[in-house]
Amino acid sequence: MKNCLLIAVLLISLSANAQQEKHNNVVYLGLGSYMISQNKADPINEFSPTVDVVYNRFLDDGFVVGAGYCFKNIIHPEYNIFSELGYDKIRRSEENHTLMLYLGYNIKIFSFRINPYIAAGVGVSRYKPKNNDVNKKIDTYFGINPGVKFEYIISRWMIFTSYSFDFTPQYDHLYHNINVGLGYLF
């Protein structure tokens, strides 16, 4: 019984301290889809799923710094591939795994936050033609990702939507992305 009482007092004490904190840290889990590819030679007509996990730290002067991981699975509608009969058009997928660093600015409006940001990072792409394991290709890349995140805070939880575009200079690719998800402040 004493142990239960001690645990209850400890939990109440921790929750009271947690409510007095500024909650300058947040972890986001976002889900989204790529909408449009600006590369006319390799257009993307379909939604392609993305998942990202990001840690951000809100600094006292309004700036935001952070780091994160992003996975995206882009489905390319047609891709020219050489076979014994010549060039065939087939569908292919592109899996990207990216580690990013974030720098942004936090604008508070009541329970809302607007965070314009820029992210940069390195990643690995794996291209795989559908139904053809022979022609897999793996590339590394550097990406730049400017965007803006709109957040609504409910207690320690945050609901957000964001718009960004991913630019990979060495491939001259530009993808537009809309993302929605949850964040947890601590």
Structural class: mainly beta
Radius of gyration: 21 Å
Order of strands side by side in the largest beta sheet? Answer: 1-2-3-4-6-7-8-9
Terminal CA distance reads 31 Å
Task: Report the CATH architecture.
Answer: Beta Barrel
Biggest β-sheet description: 8 strands, antiparallel, barrel
User: Count of DSSP helices?
Assistant: 1
Q: Which of globular, elongated, flat, extended, rod-shaped describes the shape?
A: elongated
Number of domains: 1
**What is the ordering of alpha helices and beta strands?**
HEEEEEEEEE
Q: Into which percent range does the helicity of residues fall? A: 10-25%
CATH topology: Porin
Poorly predicted ranges: 14-20
CATH class: Mainly Beta
Mean pLDDT: 80
Strand percentage lies at over 45%
Number-wise, the strands total: 9
Q: What do you see in this structure?
A:
With about 190 residues, the chain is mainly beta. It has a single domain, classed as Porin, CATH 2.40.160. It contains one helix and nine strands; from the N terminus they run αβββββββββ. It has one helix at about 1-20; strands at about 25-35, 50-60, 65-85, 85-105, 105-110, 110-130, 135-155, 155-170, 175-185. The chain has an eight-stranded antiparallel beta barrel with strand order 1-2-3-4-6-7-8-9. A hairpin with a 2-residue loop joins β3 and β4 (about 85-105). The longest helix is centred in the N-terminal third of the chain and has 19 residues, at about 1-20. The chain starts with a helix and ends with a strand. Residues about 15-20 have low confidence and may be disordered.
